[in-house]
Amino acid sequence: DSGVTQTPKHLITATGQRVTLRCSPRSGDLSVYWYQQSLDQGLQFLIQYYNGEERAKGNILERFSAQQFPDLHSELNLSSLELGDSALYFCASSVDTGGNYGYTFGSGTRLTVV
Amino acid sequence: GEDVEQSLFLSVREGDSSVINCTYTDSSSTYLYWYKQEPGAGLQLLTYIFSNMDMKQDQRLTVLLNKKDKHLSLRIADTQTGDSAIYFCAETPMYSGGGADGLTFGKGTHLIIQP
Fold first, then answer.
1. Beta strands of B2-80 (E only): which ranges?
2. Which of B103, B104, B105, B109 to mutate to probe the A interface, most A CBs <10 Å?
3. CA A102 vs CA A29, A33, A96, B31: distances in Å
4. Coil, strand, or helix at residue B82?
5. Are residues B100 and A98, on separate chains, in Cβ contact within 8 Å?
6. pLDDT tens-digit series, residues A22-68
7. Phi, then psi, of B81 in degrees rounded to 5
8. What whole-number distance in Å separates Cα of residue B58 and Cα of residue B16?
9. Chain A from 19 to 78: CB within 8 A of any B CB
């Protein structure tokens, strides 16, 4: 157990729908990062939050949004889902803003859009 | 932008050493990482090295960095069946302000262990 908790582990939904993925960072970590892992694109950085504020944005689609709450858990919202959004979504956390000493990853949420 | 390249597969015999290679393009000072992903699991940080270092050793793992050639390698001594996984090389620029743009990952190297 890495200390980063992601729920749900699996999610199957239809095109056009909206889902919310949840992440609780490791205790003491203030930064949360979201990554998407797909066979064709590999691991892509989506977005980072630090202590409730958006810190950095990567290849995140406009249909996707995220937030970090006062208790530091984070949610990734995916809307108007398309077949191509099927992927593993990972959350990671680090104690600092830069994550320069490495991140701790959760075990991921596997999203299947049908 | 930054790019990280790895070969997709490496096959080694149990007990031999595995050497997984990675090249990156970022020319600024950088942090470099090796992560391990087992089937159905998240990524586990194995080790990291700063670009002002040439080598780092941690038990069976040795990381070598050739900054001139932007080449990073991970050597696993006495490879065991439990080492079978996908190994990702990743890098992030070293910003003095502590900002982060996330890690740039390679596509991963599948390490296959032959008995």
1. 4-6, 9-13, 18-24, 30-37, 43-50, 55-58, 61-66, 71-76
2. B103
3. 12, 12, 10, 9
4. helix
5. yes
6. 999 999 999 999 999 998 888 999 999 999 999 989 889 999 999 99
7. -60, -30
8. 17
9. 31, 33, 35, 42-43, 45-46, 48, 55-56, 58
Residue entry with tokens 């696993």:
B76
Task: Measure the CA–CA gap between A89 and A26, rounded to whole angstroms.
Answer: 17
Which of B111, B32, B29, B16 lies closest to B71, judged by CA? B32
One digit per residue, the tens of pLDDT, for chain B of length 115 reads 568 999 999 999 999 999 999 999 877 768 899 999 998 888 999 999 988 889 999 999 999 999 999 999 999 999 999 999 999 999 887 653 444 567 889 999 999 999 8
What is chain B's Cα-based Rg? 14
